[in-house]
Amino acid sequence: MFDLYFRPTYISPVTVATVTDKLGATPVSVLPIHTYGQSILRKKARTVQKIGPDIVKLVEDLFETMRNAHGIGLAANQVGALQRVLVVDIRDVEGWENVPPMALLNPEVISEEGKWVMEEGCLSIPEIRDDVERAEKVRIRYRDMGFEVREIDAEGLLGRVLLHEIDHLKGVLFVDYLGPVKQKLLKGRLNKIRRGEVEVAYPIVAEGETVMAENKVGD
Ligand SMILES: [Zn+2]
Questions:
Q1: CA 165 – ligand 1 centroid, Å
Q2: Single pTM value for the model
Q3: 104-132, pLDDT tens digit by residue?
Q4: How far is the CA of 55 from the centre of ligand 1 (A)?
Q5: Which of 36, 73, 102, 212 could disulfide-link 165, Cβ–Cβ 3.0 to 4.6 Å?
Q6: How far apart are CA 55 and CA 85, in angstroms?
Q7: pLDDT tens, 165-215?
């Protein structure tokens, strides 16, 4: 089994709720998720310069969109916003119930250690999962929702999710790491996603249009 150890003391306890109290609540929206083939997934997100109502709204919408899609992480590019913002909530995963949901602004990897392989999926690439090798331990510097600079040491699933989401902010997708043979095998399925021919239980954007996907049972 994978080692899922991590040190919770490094996690900033600032939650979106506390920020909302300070800045005033706005209605939260589930945004459509941009899927494979959408150019915004290949663009580099811009550095957040300050926290304003736009960033608070973006973070809240990211959390809402992620939860609606039963994801454990989501990056701003995926909802069509080119801001270096990501959210993570892995509390539904066994062994990670005590990790508070996190919003990271301007995250950057400052050190990496070791390598491990884990199967990944992505809300922007529905129905495709594959093994990806990434660093085992990472240190990430970011700004929290109070715009304070923080650092987090993460390993196991938490490090994995953070690296996956930071990649999104750089225009990188997990399928980019797959070898040429796997890439070739997946081409047909990726093209289907590009055309919006996927069944997912959350709203998506494919081929430049918003598609309200049919809801599957249980959502
Ligand atoms: Zn993803």
A1: 6
A2: 0.84
A3: 999 999 999 999 999 999 999 999 999 99
A4: 20
A5: 73
A6: 8
A7: 999 999 999 999 999 999 999 999 999 999 999 999 999 998 755 555 544
Domains in the chain, CATH or no CATH each: 8-205 (3.90.45.10)
- Whether 132 and 101 have beta carbons less than 8 Å apart is answered as no
Catalytic residue among 165, 197, 207, 214: 165
Which protein residues have a CB closer than 5 Å to ligand 1 (ion)?
122
Distance of CA 77 from the midpoint of ligand 1 (Å):
10
Distance between Cα 41 and ligand 1 center (Å): 9
| Contact (CB, 8 A) for 103 and 62 | yes
- Between the CA of 18 and the centroid of ligand 1 the distance, in Å, is 27
Indicate the residue type of 166: I
Between 91 and 24, residue with greater pLDDT: 91
* pLDDT tens sequence across 64-85: 999 999 999 999 999 999 999 9
**How far apart are the C-alpha atoms of 93 and 77, rounded to whole Å?**
24
Supply the angle between the helices 16-23 and 53-68 in degrees, to the nearest 10: 140
Cα 19 to ligand 1 centre (Å): 26
The answer to whether the beta carbons of residues 209 and 35 sit under 8 Å apart is: no
Q: How far is CA 74 from CA 71, 104, 138, 191, in A?
A: 7, 11, 18, 22
Does residue 127 have an active-site annotation?
no
